[in-house]
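Objective 1b: paired records.
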Amino acid sequence: MQTLSTQCPETATRRKRNGLLAAAMAVVLATGLGTVSVSQAHTGDHDSQVIESTPHSMADIIERVQPSVVNIVATRSASHAASMRGMDPRMEDMLRRFFGPGRTPAQPGQDEPMQSASALGSGFIIDSEGYVVTNNHVIEDAEQVQVVLEDGTTLPARIVGTDPRSDLAVLKVESDKTLPAVLFGDSDSVRVGEWVVAIGNPFGLGGTATAGIISARGRDIQSGPYDDYLQIDAPINKGNSGGPVFDTEGRVIGINTAIFSPNGGSVGIGFAIPAAQAKTAVEQIIENGHVTRGWLGVQIQPITEEIQASLGLEGTKGALVSDVSKDSPAAKSGLEVTDVILAFDGTEISDTRELVRLVAKTRPDQKVPVSVWREGKKRNIDVTIGTLKDPEQEIVASNQPSSETGKLGLKIAPLDKQSRERLRLDESVEGALVTGVAPNSPAARQGLRPGDVIMRIGQSRVDSPQALSEAVESAGKSGEESVLALVRRGDSQRFVALKLG
C-alpha cells in the first residue's frame, strides 16, 4: 500500500523557505561566524523571505589586526643563557614557556666561544605612541630588546615596567610614523566555545595566525597566586609568548603565556592571561612603572566537608583563615584565626583563589566590608586594605586535602627551647609538639607527622600537651564528632579536621 500526501502551494513555499533558513543557520553554526538576517520580499501573489548572510571572515579580522602584532627579540648575556640550560627538565615537560629557539650558547670548555643568546617572543601595540605589551618572561634579564614590526622595521625598545606576578611587561618604541594599535576586549563575558584568533611569532615565523575556541575558563596552572587563565585550543608554540588572542570583533581578550606540552609542540592546550586582568596591570605599569596590589595579611585554605561540619557551616564556600600576620590589615581590623571569610567587598567568596584575586585588585587604603563566620554566627568587619610590598606578604592559599578518619593517634610533647631552635620557631609560637603518629590513625591520614606543632583545637588555644588533651576531651564530652586542629609546619599553618572515636 502506498501512502500519498498532498500539500497546497502555500505550504510547499513555507517549507521551502524554512528549509533555506535552517540551511543558512547551519552554515553559521558550523563556522561560528557571521550574521543572518531575514527580510520580506514580494513575489507575485505571495510574500517570501530572502536570507541574507553577512559573514565576518577570519581573513578580515586577521587583515585588520595583524599590523599591530609585533615580534620581540630579547638579547641576554652568555652567562645568563648558560644558567638557563640548568633548568629542571620536568618543568619544561609540564609547562613550556614560549621562548623562541634563538642561539644556544656553547658551554664553557667547548670549542665554540660563548655568545649572547636571543629569545624570540611576540607582543602587540596598544597605543599609537608606541606602547607594546608582551610577557615578562620574554624580556626578563634582557640586556637589549628590539621590536620588529609587520613590515620588517626593527625598533629599539625601552622597558617601561614589568609585573612578574602576572607575567606581563610593557615596552616603549619610538617611530616616525603612526603605529597601528588594538584595544582590549571584555574577557569577563567571553564564553567557552567562542571563536578566537591567535597571532604571533612561533619558532621565529612572524605573523603566524591560528584559530580555535575558548576551551575553558578560570584555569589554575600553579604558576602564581593570581592564576585565572583562559584555556584555548588554537595552536600556539614557542615564540607565541606575549602574543594576543583576539575575539571575532578584533579585540584582545587574552595574552598567550604558557602551553601544556609533553612533547615540546602544540597539543591544543594553551593558556592566556585574561584581558580584564592584563588591562589593569598594563595601565598601572604605564602610569607608575609597576603594579600596586592590595594586601590583607592572612593565610587561608579551602573549606572541606569535614571542616564545614566542625564549624557548623551551611556549605563549603568561603576561605578559612589559618594565620593572621602581625600588624597586618587583617590583624588591625580584628580578623582572627578560624574565621571563615564568606564575602569580600560585597562579592561572595566561592574559593580561596577568588579571595586572593579580589584582595590583589583592591586599591590600597580602601576600606571594604568583609563578612565572616565566627563561632556559629555571621559577622561584618570593615578592613582597610594595605599595600603589598613583598612576595611573603601575599595571601597564602593552602590546598592540602583532608580526609575522613578515625581516632587521633598522636604522641605529643612540650615545645621546649631545644625544639624551638631545631624547628626555627620564635617565642611567639605556642603549641604542642607532635613526636609520633600512629599508623592508620586520623592524624596519619590527615598527613600529620613528627615535628608538626598543634596550636589550636577548635576555639581553644593550645600551649601544652595537657591543654591539647583537655581540649580534645572537652570536645568529645560535648558530643562533637570531630575537632578542628590548627597545625603549623615550617612557616605555614593549616587546619585539619580530626574525627573523634
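Objective 1b, second protein:
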Amino acid sequence: MKKILILGSTGSIGVSTLDVIRNFKDKFEIFGLTANSNIELLQKQIEEFKPKFVVVRNGLKSKELKNKVTGCNVLTGEEGLIEVTKSGDYDILVSSLVGFAGLEPTIESIKRGKRIALANKETLVAAGEIVIGLAKKYNSEIIPVDSEHSAIFQCLVGEDKKNIEKLIVTASGGPFLKKSVEDLKNVTVEDALNHPNWDMGSKVTIDSSTMMNKGLEVIEAHWLFGLSKSKIDVVVHPQSIVHSMVEFVDGNIKAQLSLPDMKLPIQYALSYPERFSSKFVNTHFPTLKELTFFEPDLQKFKCLQLAYNSMGEGGTAPCILNAANEIAVEKFLKREIKFTQIPELIDSALNKIEVKHTLDYETILECNRKTREFSQKFN
C-alpha cells in the first residue's frame, strides 16, 4: 500500500489522480491533499479519502475549512506546504501545483528520497540543474506525468540512452493551429481557453494556445532525459494520439499512443515499473480517421522559439522565461494585455533581466522575483 501526497488536489491533474486512486484502493491511500482556495471540492475529497493532512494556501479559506472538517490536520499557506512535504510519512508526491509555486515543496520531497510524479513542468524549467542534482544525491525518482514526457519515458524503458538520435515531442497545436498571424491579433480570452483536445486549468490552456506549453516541455525534456536542444524536436500532431516519439541511431522510432486522457500517464507514474489493469481508455484504431503531423510555425508561435532560445542560453534564462510567462498569462486572463503581447512581454524580460550562469537556489529565487517585478510593469 503506497501513501500518496497530492499537491494541487482540486486542479485537473489532482482530480484525475484521485480518479486513478479510487480505482486502486487496495494499492494506494491518500496521506495528504493540498489546494489553493477551492475548499468546497477539497471538503468532498477529505470526506471520501480521509487524508491525515490537508493544506489550504489561502489563509481565510483554511480557517473556514478548519471549522468544517474533523479527523485531519489542516495546515495553512506556503509554510503548510513545506511542513507536509517535510513530514516524510508518504511514498509518492504528485507535484501538480501550477507554476513556480511547485518548486520548493517538490525540492523538500526530493530531499527525503520520495518518488516524484511530476506534473509541474515549471519546477524543471526554472531550476532543472538544481532539481536533477538533488534527485541524484538523494536517490529520488522523478517519473513524468505530462503525457509527452511519460511517452518518452515509456519508450526508453529497457533502452540505452546513448542510442537516442532524437526525441520528438508532439503538440496539438492548440485552438489556433489554423489561424493566421493576423487572426491572432483579435484573439479573446474565451477563444484561447477553448482547447480542442484537453481539459486543463486556465494557465496550462493559455500556454497551449501560445505553444509556450510545448516550449516548457522541451526544456523539461532536456533535464529529464539529459539531451541537448539539437536532439529535441517538436512536431504538431492535432489528433493528440501519438503522445511523443523517440528516434534511435539505427533509424527505428518508438512511439506511445492512446486517446488523450491524463489518467493514463498518472497511473503509470504511480504504478511504475508495474502496469495495473484499468479501463480508463479504449483506443479503437478503426475509428481513428487520420494521424497527421506538421512542422510548428515559429513565426506564429513565437513563445516556442523563445523557449528554445532560453534553453540554449542556459543559466537563469529559462527561469526568466518561466516567470515572465506566468505574469504574461495572468495579465492576459485579466484582459490587461492582448494575446499577441504575451511573447512580447517574455522577450522584453529575456532582454532586460541579467542571466546568471552560476546557479544555486537563492539565485533562482532572486531571478524569479526580479523577473516578476519587471513583468508586472509591462503594458
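The two ends are 52 Å apart (CA to CA). The chain is about 45% helix and 15% strand.
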